[in-house]
Specification:
This protein is an alpha/beta fold and 267 residues long. The protein is built from seven helices and eight strands; from the N terminus they run αβαββααβααββββα. The protein folds into two domains: 100 residues, GMP Synthetase, Chain A, domain 3, CATH 3.30.300.20; 97 residues, 2-Layer Sandwich (Ribosomal protein S3 C-terminal domain). Helix 5 runs antiparallel to helix 6. The radius of gyration is 33 Å and the shape is globular.
C-alpha cells in the first residue's frame, strides 16, 4: 500500500515554516478552534483576492494574522476599507488585539494553491478538464517551475463514474527534503458534483540556513577524489627519494682500499 505524506508537513522545520506560531498548555483546543474560524473567515471574505495561505502568530495579548495574496489591492480596498472590515470581523472571533498584515505573492504561477484555484475556476465554468490542466501545466513551466503535476478527481465531464486524471511535466522529487515543493488542494463545486484538484509545483532546491529562507539553485556536484597518484607525481617522488638515498650513503673507494672510518666529533 502507498504511504503518502503531506509535502508541507514532511518538511516542517527543514525548509518550511509553521503556519501557526504559538504555544498553549490548557487552552490548546480553544485556540485551535479559534484559528480554524479565523482561516475560514479570511477565505470566505477574500474569496476573490487569490489568498494562498494565512499565518497566525499569538502573543500574550495580541494575535497577528498575515495574509498571503496575489492581489493585495483587493485585500486592502479603497482607502483601506476592506482591511478595517476584515480586522473588525476577526476581532469578533477573539478577545485579543488583532494585528493584520498583507504580503504580496510575486509569482502566483508558482504557488500550488493559486494554480489549483485557477483550475477549479475553469472547471466550474464548464471548460474541458484536459484543456484546463494542460494549459495550466504549460503556463507554470513557462513561469520558471522545474516540475509540476496536476491531478483532478471526480465526475469529470459529468460522467456517471468518477475517475482520476492527471498531467505532469518536469520532475517532482517528493522524497527529497531539501526540494522546495508547493502543494495545494482546492474543490471545484460543479452542478454534477464536487471535483478535487491537487497541484504539486517543484521550484528548485532550497539550501538556506533557516526555514523559509530565500530559494537558491542546487550546489555544484562534489568532485570525486582521484584514486591513485598520477604517473608524473610518482616518477618525481621516486627521483627525489633516490637522490636523498645517494646523498646519505658514503662514497665508494676507487682503488679497492677500504674506506676510512670517520671518527665522531667530540662535543
Amino acid at each position: 500500500m502507498g504511504h503518502k505524506v503531506h509535502p508541507y508537513g514532511f518538511r516542517l522545520g527543514i525548509n518550511k515554516p509553521w503556519l501557526a506560531k504559538w504555544y498553549a498548555d490548557r487552552d490548546y483546543a480553544t485556540l485551535l478552534q479559534e484559528d480554524m474560524r479565523i482561516r475560514q473567515l479570511v477565505s470566505r471574505q477574500l474569496a476573490n483576492a487569490s489568498v494562498s495561505q494565512v499565518e497566525i502568530e499569538r502573543g500574550i495579548n495580541h494575535v497577528t494574522v498575515t495574509v498571503h495574496s496575489a492581489k493585495p489591492g483587493i485585500v486592502i480596498g479603497k482607502g483601506g476599507q476592506n482591511v478595517e472590515l476584515l480586522r473588525t470581523s476577526i476581532g469578533k472571533l477573539t478577545d485579543k488585539k488583532v494585528k493584520l498584515e498583507i504580503k504580496e505573492i510575486l509569482q502566483p504561477e508558482l504557488d500550488a494553491v493559486l494554480v489549483a484555484q485557477n483550475v477549479a475556476g475553469q472547471l466550474e465554468r464548464r471548460i474541458a478538464f484536459r484543456k484546463a490542466v494542460k494549459q495550466t501545466v504549460q503556463r507554470t513551466i513557462k513561469a520558471g517551475a522545474k516540475g509540476v503535476k496536476i491531478q483532478v478527481s471526480g465526475r469529470l465531464g459529468g460522467a456517471e463514474m468518477s475517475r482520476t486524471e492527471w498531467d505532469k511535466e518536469g520532475r517532482i522529487p517528493l522524497g527529497t527534503l531539501r526540494a522546495d515543493i508547493s502543494y495545494g488542494v482546492v474543490h471545484a463545486r460543479t452542478t454534477y458534483g464536487r471535483i478535487g484538484v491537487k497541484v504539486w509545483v517543484y521550484r528548485g532546491d532550497q539550501l538556506g540556513e533557516r526555514p523559509g529562507s530565500a530559494r537558491t539553485e542546487p550546489r555544484e556536484p562534489r568532485q570525486r577524489p582521484t584514486r591513485g597518484r598520477s604517473r608524473s607525481t610518482t616518477a618525481s617522488t621516486s627521483a627525489a627519494t633516490a637522490t636523498v638515498g645517494a646523498a646519505a650513503e658514503p662514497a665508494a673507494p676507487t682503488n679497492g682500499e677500504p674506506a676510512a672510518a670517520t671518527a665522531p666529533e667530540e662535543a
